[in-house]
Amino acid sequence: MSETIHTKVLIIGGGPGGYVAAIRCGQLGLETTLVESHKLGGTCLNVGCIPSKAVIHSAGYFETMARAASDKGLHGIKLASPPTLDMAALVAWKETVVKKLNTGVAALLKRAKVRVVQGWAVFSDAKTCKVGDTTITAEHVILATGSLPVALPFLPFGDKVISSTEALELEELPKKLVVVGAGYIGLELGIALRKLGSDVTIVEALDRILPLYDAELVAPVAKWLKTNGVTVHLSAKAKGADKGGLVVEMADGKTETFPADRILVTVGRKPNTEGWGRETMALDMDSETGGRFVKVDDQCRTSMKNVWAVGDLVGEPMLEHKAATQGEMVAEIIAGHKRRFAPASIPAVCFTEPEIVSAGLLPAEAAAKGIETITAVFPFAANGRSLSMDSGEGFVRVVAAKSDHRLLGIQAVGAHVAELSGEFSHALEMGALLEDVAGTIHVHPTLSEAYHEAALRALGHAIHI
Question: CB of 451 within 8 A of CB of 437?
């Protein structure tokens, strides 16, 4: 039976950008309809951030128990036998976390009086779409369609060749895993599966891993990979798969085949721009990115009046917290508030071993802008909390303008440093100086003391180094 819905705000996509926009619209009294073709929460909640961190967490437990079962034991703790892995049970537990959050998002939308329509939306014009037999018209449209894994034409996804989505559904641990791509997704999953017992090989076309970060930040991760038997081939190009595994052109031009039960392709993600009628909506694409992303201004307005776009659809970085912030902002602008998207930084975290967090400018980025800087590093080897957790690897680094000591960037690599990202981002957003950080009492014993000491060191008077 056909139905027509008229709504103030129509949101396409129930991921972080879409559902946050919908909840905020509801809070502001705007009649809102949200269309989602799969599960609420989008990539992040269902097949990305949340399930991957659940698997990474479990892998850490497994590795710790394996160390305790070794001849040396772990800090005086010994297990009589090594742990065993039930991969299907691990995946099932991961799904309970996802389901709990799915249910929570649905409840929040219901509380905000958001109408949720299940299905695939196809637009016939900028303000009208069909979802099955339902026609929806709106005054405002927010596009939050997210992104998809990039597939290589010579390595199409299938039973043996998988994306990160399928990697998080594996109910049997691959004995031999080859990862194509040494970005954050490939390394996060590759490291987790190595901890669980897979023999992992990483193939990267560039001459370094994690190219978004500088060599100093990446060094502890590279050390972990080497120490834990993960083979990394740089300047190596995947060429295809055969029955034996992955065919690779090595840096010297020779061809080798790496045996693999599974080949995990993690060469990036692309905005989901096709199949929902973008071409009928008169939307300009961003020429500066080769037309990959929908073009928006600093309020996430597209070229069509009252059509907005947020999240992965509008450009890098493709991160949940960027999408959610943009979604909330657009809802408030529609309600009449004055907002624009101009963050001092969009912090990024790589959940490798150890973790990396970066907010603001790297030293080389500041130099490229012609800014004379003060840079200082404080190692976790001199941090009591880090050593008490058997994780003295890594450091905190501050980058500040030499002229006025204003912080421009803050980075860290080490165990659990993701939890420092909020403090880093907050300092940059508030325009903090080195003196502000140095003058703020940081709790002992915590990892945040390393940040305090890095600021002190930049000012020339670190205490504990």
Answer: yes
